[in-house]
Amino acid sequence: MTAGFAAALSQAQAKISTHMDMRLPQADLLHEAMAYALRGGKMLRGFLVLESARLHDVPEAAALEAALAIECIHAYSLVHDDLPSMDDDDLRRGQPTLHRKWDEATAVLAGDSLQTFAFELLARDEVGPHALPLIRALAQAAGKDGMVSGQMLDIAAESAATPLTLDQITTLQARKTGCLIEWSACAGARLAGANPEPLRHYAQALGLAFQIADDILDIEGDAATVGKAVRKDADAGKATFVSLLGLEGAKSRAQELAQLASTALTPYGAAGETLKDAARFVISRDS
Ligand code: GRG
């Protein structure tokens, strides 16, 4: 991680956390559980929102609502993914999963509230005149043709007679994790009413590189803290990018994608440097 990128990421994390404390006072158990789900992550998606907003001179007050909104959607997906009816995980970000800390009903409801809260944030006046396209795009990215459909494909793959092909797993992951990454990177352009295409190309390559890196981490990372879901996949005979491309093939595909992501930022010139660093970080991260 370059020093510039590390500083930009930790500044984004601090700003989003402060904003969360303001928007989500811990009035009762439900609010406490929502805040618990939001804490401890890398906040990469929120960082992408703030950085793309910076590229488009979007006021920070608007960008922070969008950054917190996407972290809420991401946190909800993790809480629900960890439930006994899905992955049945005990740990998330090194802490007990929400349903282990409290109970399953609290986890379902905290996830539900995080999802609706995201849209409440995007409907705030601070977001400005371009809120509607942003809201529409988030509903599409998170819902029946985006993340949730990716999760359905993933669940269906568990009982499929044969492992997924490379094309099928690419589609699955583009929906399951790629759609939120794409929304995040495009958010700044959308908030400014500008063309999000260069950022969309960047994010599509970044999202796939992120998922391939996740599969590589499972093989090479710290077994106690990373890759648990992917390891489960491998154990269940489900295809991963590493099983389909081989370890070296997966690494070189991730490198190619990070390069492709950087090239997509050419229209932004030197201002795109931090997002290029983010692409390099995504394929070299250790958690
Ligand atoms: C249950 C509706 C529903 C959707 C779940 C995104 C998802 C769909 C499940 C997450 C399962 C998983 C481990 C996916 C692999 C990639 C991924 C999203 C990892 C977590 O993202 P990071 O690394 O996590 O950005 P942090 O903790 O840093 O926020």
Task: Describe what you observe in this structure.
This protein has 287 residues and is mainly alpha-helical. It has a single domain, classed as Farnesyl Diphosphate Synthase. Helices cover 72% and strands 1% of the residues. It is built from 14 helices and 2 strands. It has helices at 3-23, 29-38, 44-55, 60-81, 98-101, 104-122, 131-142, 147-158, 166-192, 197-220, 228-235, 241-245, 247-264, 273-284, and strands spanning 91-92, 95-96. α3 packs antiparallel against α4. The chain starts with a helix and ends with a helix. The model is unreliable at 223-227 (pLDDT under 50). The structure holds geranylgeranyl diphosphate.
**Secondary-structure element series:** HHHHEEHHHHHHHHHH
Share of residues in strands: under 5%
- CATH classification class: Mainly Alpha
Largest sheet: 2 strands, antiparallel
Give the number of helices.
Answer: 14
Q: Show unreliable segments.
A: 223-227
Question: What general form does the structure show?
Answer: globular
Q: What name does the CATH topology carry?
A: Farnesyl Diphosphate Synthase
Helical percentage: over 70%
Structural class: mainly alpha
> Distance between termini?
13 Å
> Radius of gyration over alpha carbons?
18 Å
In quaternary terms, these chains amount to: single chain
Strand order of the largest sheet: 1-2
Q: List the domain count as a whole number.
A: 1
The CATH architecture comes to Orthogonal Bundle
CATH superfamily (homologous) name: Farnesyl Diphosphate Synthase
Mean pLDDT over all positions: 94
The number of strands is: 2
Protein name: Polyprenyl synthetase family protein
InterPro entries: Isoprenoid_synthase_dom_sf, Polyprenyl_synt, Polyprenyl_synt_CS, Prenyl_diphosphate_synthase
Family: Belongs to the FPP/GGPP synthase family.
Pfam families: polyprenyl_synt
